[in-house]
Design goal:
The protein has 284 residues and is an alpha+beta fold. The chain folds into two domains: 8-79 and 170-283, no CATH class; 85-162. 46% of the residues lie in helices and 14% in strands. α3 (64-71) crosses α10.
Amino acid sequence: MTAPAAPTLSPMCLPRAGALTEALLGDGATPSTDAVASARRDLEHGLTDAAGRAGARPCLRVRAFDLVTAAGGGSSAATPFRWTTRTARRRVGLAALRACLSEPGMVPAEAVALVVADPAAPSGPGPAGPGSCSDWLCSLSPPARAAVQAESTAWATAVWTSLEWDRVQPAPVVGAPDRWWDWRGPVRVALQGRADVRVPGPGGAHLVVLDGYPSAASRQALCFGPLVDALRSNGAATPARVVAWWPECGKAWVQQVDGAGLRACAGQVVRVVRLALDATERAG
């Protein structure tokens, strides 16, 4: 399925921070309750059909990353997650951005240094515990921790300079915990939605910061976070748009969230679940 057409922002035409801020604060209506209900029906009917054909009964977690990987013909199961300087930079960078927003005059380099120096602090990169980012950071040698600090500083600086923060009202929520929606059918399916910056309220928006460069596959997954929000709230907390920002290549893309986009994303989720169940059955 293809994503609905949407405008591409060119940082060569407009100042980057101004363009992204305008996109984040732009006009737009959230999908109607009928549109959300239609996407929910499509998703639940598709999951019921997929689960009815499955021999195994696993619990599946689906993320936007899985939609992108499946669209490219791959399987996210082939690359188990582990903490590295690259995978940790978002967690550390978001903690640093929160510090910059709450402490006038602080810059990302200073904030990242504080986070890395004491990752178990309340202002650290997330809850501590076995397997957590904080736990991993505490286990690193000084040279390895310095590498994490350098990578995280670059990431946080790119995001910090991408918006005119004083214009973003109501106050944005930076690095909020991931949001989940569970389907408890014959196969339990958990959708994990994520956004780096959320502008709350009617006509709100998500900013998602992505690695690499945009592709058709990555763009098709932009409605995933809004779909999770819509399912959790029956449409009450669905954002009006998603602004995707690829700092490594300086590209941005705006996705208006509408009924067609939510239904297309629901279809992609069903496809990912089918592929995962087929793989589980073949392995069994």
